[in-house]
Design a protein that fits this description.
heterodimer, A: alpha+beta, 25% helix, globular, B: alpha+beta, Sulfite Reductase Hemoprotein, domain 1, Sulfite Reductase Hemoprotein, domain 2, five-stranded antiparallel sheet
């Protein structure tokens, strides 16, 4: 099974975030909690549901990732752009942080 | 300009207060996202790839300087210092915070603006010819009719939950600048030699995954029956439009499946029942609304002066701008100036807060306080004295707003695509930038002549690719961005859906393909023949051969 992380948007400001191992949210996928087994994925999904219910984030979903040179990179193009920000405005989004 | 009456003011302010309460309850957890989502969408607040997005309605694309200044202020204070003008004559902010949304709406309400019905399955913001009230070729200013439709359709209780969204466009010119045949309903006001002023009514046009050039449902409609006829169309659509499949829910599918004869019969039957009811409006009502759109106090000024001729001779860049960006005005000595939002390396439709303020100031100084937004993602100063054009151009040049490319190849429409939009499959903006860079030579652009390139990042066709002389559709093929090329489309009075040339291209390949198409046209065109005319004469054959080789 490929590795997965949970992504969502902050409720208040809409920013793209990732569920971290300490059960918080970070805008850096490198800090995301990476699930490699079906059991871990199920656990992550449950925690994302709780976070949504607690009004911290919206639209939580599981996305596949690739580990590359010590970094966690979303596998799909759409999620890669989401992780960074608009490719035509590199001064905006998480890439600008 | 239309000015809100007490009822309009109260309605918009109440809506802001209502939304403020809803946001508060969402943030406190009293409303779940599932409960809140339809409420925020009713107020134009989407959740996109990177953040929330607020879509602000600009009714029939008309703005005052004060309104545009407020849009700039909002961009600066609540967003990231810019806004994006869309192919629906709206403005989108890409980074607002949920907690700021009520304050933004309050700022808009203070200048008679809102985001109501910029989302959802309702009658959306009414669009119109962006040269309305100024164009030399129009029968009359169509905006009073657009305003009447706005008032009728705003919060219309019967049409708040249609099978799908519904878009109406109005023009009063034989040259269609509003793409009326690609709307759910298109209206063309004209003078019939025997019956007098009336509307040709078109129903069932649209783009998206199943494009249709809208057929005419009624060749002539007396203006006083406009609203009852629209209501009859909407009622039949609301009753019979499909709700089982989102991809078949637009009116174009209903008209296609019924056939126009059956659809027209149903509409006419309903219309006969209601046409003499309360929706028929008196001449005084038209006069009342039309007063808001009274022409400015044009001066009787000279057609041109020696000074203008000298300025053009001494400034080739100014002369090129006049050639491409200036259109004939109905008043002697005046011109319509298009401000291109397609600068070299820029993002089609984006304007910074500073640029918006500059245009707002110029609108006040040179255009009777009026600015227009075009569906081609540009701005317009509709009423500029010809004698002021050089001064206007000089100021625009200092603010990066004097691109002399209106209607030319680099005046590209592009949807936000996968750089911003959660529905997109591929990016549009970088493609527009690469094509623009490839053709970054003003002489070459003017040599090529009028050519409309339109790019969409998904099948929903916000970038109007079906109507592009050269249309490009981005798709996702096994995780890779690919681009389909289509040729021969038009959104004008000769509305046509473009034809796909063949297999798609990758990002570099599509830029080469566009150049191949343009070179083929240049090689094969007759003297003075524009791209679309040449394509229609030649057919797709020579272009396909140049693109894919003889097969």
């Amino acid at each position: 099974m490929s590795e997965h992380i949970i992504t969502a948007n902050n409720l208040r400001d809409g920013r793209v975030v990732y569920l971290t191992r300490d059960e918080g949210w970070s805008n850096n996928p490198d800090k995301a909690w990476v699930a490699a087994t079906p059991e871990e994925v199920a656990r992550l999904s449950g925690m994302a549901g709780l976070a949504a219910a607690a009004n911290v984030v919206v639209g939580a979903e599981l996305i596949p990732v690739i580990k590359e040179a010590g970094h966690v990179r979303p596998a799909r193009n759409r999620e890669l752009i989401r992780a960074l920000g608009p490719t035509v405005r590199t001064d905006l989004g998480n890439q600008a942080v | 300009m239309y000015a809100y009456d007490a009822y309009d003011h109260a309605l918009v302010r109440e809506r802001v207060n209502e939304f403020r309460g809803q946001v508060k309850r969402r943030l406190s957890g009293d409303l779940t996202e599932e409960e809140f989502r339809p409420l925020r969408l009713m107020n134009g607040l989407y959740l996109q790839l990177h953040a929330y997005m607020l879509r602000v309605a600009i009714p029939y694309g008309t703005l005052s300087s004060k309104q545009l200044t407020t849009l700039a202020h909002i961009a600066r204070v609540y967003d990231k210092g810019y806004g994006h003008f869309t192919t629906r004559q709206n403005l989108q902010y890409n980074w607002p915070k949920l907690e700021d949304a009520p304050d933004i709406l309050a700022e808009l309400a203070a200048v008679e603006m809102h985001a109501i019905q910029t989302s959802g399955n309702t009658i959306r913001n009414v669009t119109a010819d962006h040269f309305a009230g100024a164009a030399a070729d129009e029968v009359e200013d169509p905006r009073p009719w657009a305003e009447l439709i706005r008032q009728w359709s705003t919060l219309h209780p019967e049409f708040s939950f249609l099978p799908r969204k519904f878009k109406i466009a109005v023009t009063a010119s034989p040259h269609d600048r509003a793409a009326v045949r690609f709307h759910d309903i298109g209206l063309i006001l004209y003078n019939d030699p025997e019956k007098g002023r009336g509307f040709e009514v078109i129903a069932g046009g649209g783009m998206g995954r199943t494009p249709f050039v809208g057929p005419t449902i009624r060749k002539y409609l007396q203006p006083e029956h406009l609203l009852s006829y629209l209501e009859a169309i909407l009622r039949i659509y609301n009753e019979w439009g499909r709700r089982d499949n989102i991809y078949k829910a637009r009116i174009k599918i209903l008209v296609h499946e019924f056939g126009m004869d059956k659809f027209r019969h149903a509409v006419e039957e309903e219309w006969q029942r209601i046409k003499d009811g309360p929706l028929q409006f008196a001449a005084e009502e038209e006069v009342r609304i039309r007063e808001h759109f009274s022409p400015p106090a044009f001066e009787d000024v000279a057609l041109s002066s020696e000074q203008d001729e000298k300025a053009m001779a001494e400034n080739p860049d100014f002369a090129a701008w006049v050639k491409a960006n200036i259109h004939p005005h109905k008043a002697r000595g005046y011109a319509i100036a298009t401000i291109s939002l397609k600068p070299h390396g820029g993002i089609p439709g984006d304007a910074t807060a500073d640029q918006m303020e500059t245009v707002a100031d110029l609108g006040k100084l040179y255009s009777f306080d009026e600015i227009r937004v075009t569906h081609e993602q540009n701005l317009v100063l509709p009423h500029v004295r010809k004698a002021d054009l050089f001064a206007l151009w000089t100021i625009l040049s200092h603010h990066g707003l004097a691109s002399a490319n209106a209607g030319l190849l680099t005046d590209i429409i592009a949807c936000p695509g996968l750089d911003y939009c959660s529905l997109a499959n591929a990016r549009s903006i970088p493609l527009a930038q690469k094509i623009a860079a490839r053709f970054d030579d003003l002489k070459r652009l003017h040599h090529i002549g009028p050519l409309k390139i339109k790019i969409s990042g998904c099948i929903n066709a916000c970038g109007h690719h079906h109507a592009g002389h050269i249309g490009i559709l981005g798709v996702d093929k096994k995780g890779e961005e690919r681009y389909q090329l289509m040729l021969g489309g038009s959104g004008a009075e000769d509305a046509t859906i473009g034809q796909i040339t063949g297999p798609g291209f990758d990002e570099e390949g599509i830029v080469d393909a566009v150049e191949t198409v343009v070179n083929t046209y240049l090689h094969r065109r007759s003297e003075g023949e524009e791209f679309l005319t040449a394509y229609r004469r030649l057919g797709p054959g020579p272009f396909k051969e140049a693109l894919y080789g003889a097969r």
